[in-house]
Amino acid sequence: MRVLPLVPPLLLIPMLGGCMMGPNFHGAPPPPASMSKTFVRADQAAMPVPPQLTPWWRTLNDPLLDQLITRALSSNPSIEVAEARVRQARSQMRGARAALAPVVGAGAGAGNIQAPGLVTGGEAKSSSLFLAGFDALWEIDLFGGARRNIEATRAQFGAAQADADDTRLTLTAEIARQYIALRASRQRLEIARYLLTNQQKIADLTAQLEGAGKVSRIEREQTDRGVEARRQTVAALEAEVNDHKDAIAVLAGEAPGALDTMLDGPGTVPLPPVEVAVGDPAAMLARRPDIRAAAQRLHAANAGIGVAEAARMPRVSLAGVVGLGGALKGDITSADNLWSVAGPTIQWNLADFGRGRAGVDQAVAGRDEAAAGYRATVLAALQDAEGSLNRFGEARKMFAMQARNGLSAVHSNDLVQQSWRVGRSSALVALAAENEQLAAEDLLVQARMALTTQFVALQKALAMGVN
Asked: Pfam families from the entry (predicted)?
């Protein structure tokens, strides 16, 4: 028996699915009209030329830092989490695309039919039934709800990719920051140990002078307290060194202490290049992964309006079944027992008491929230970039100033040491002058660390090396 051919109704699908509910996405809102064409806080060393979009950390010319960042990018758990989210979003996008295709299944069954006498017009009868066949269900995307969902999932996939880029950018900056702090702490620790040695010499000399009655006990106790203060500084810096080594190891995907051998080598804080290309604000906004993610989320929220509006409209589906069957087991193997059923179905919630309208209103509010979030992200990015430029420029000035102070301290110490060697100055004066030079060196290391740290923050703010 043949009830209805299955193929002809399916040929109607291309003619039915053409409408798209909801607003089309025309791109994220433009940046604020008050945005300058160049960075306001850039100094003369920050060149408004397009930067080279290569890994920014290589400009520091530190092979160990390059190795650590490469290791972290391949082993850090945060990167693995971000990449897993990208895979999830890709799978969701594939699933949304599959919604446009029919669902095809296969099945077989056997049963006994008991027909009462009222139906048969006589005595009750029973009959066996054996069936095997295929079924298909195809919901026609008549109002574009499925296509809008594909659009939304595609945008969510783009947002996940941008979030992964942002995670990589943040990781590289944090590795560099910890590495710079480690180098600075180690240099400062060496200086602190020299200062402790000198302070102990000063305390010993003062004790001798107290014994000779040339200084008071109060002065001797002051020098003793100075020794204790130096010991505390050394202990604090030793703890800092270990903290930074552990932080770097964890960022690289290793247990604390696992990279101590690699990190215990000598080295100084790397310096940034003399001139830094920063480009312009518009190009920076286009590069920043957080802004790209916000734009994609706005796109997804906009598509969600179409999904909600389509959900209020009628749902049209085509269902079909084709198979073999009969009252005997052998009927499911005979082509003479082929049967098929196919036809459209329509479902429409004529009275949902406002549920559909509420869904649309919620989607519109979600789109408005995403638009406001995008604008907030843009303003925060501009503030981040301008603030980083400002701090980098000030750090450059402070480093130059401290370098001059350091040279002055070296010159003064040389004069005092010469005077001490010819007997014109005391050993206490010579030690004090050497301590002043060491203190100036310590301040210079801190200024150098601040300069390079602000360079790293600037590269992160400008989103360098993530594309």
From this structure: OEP
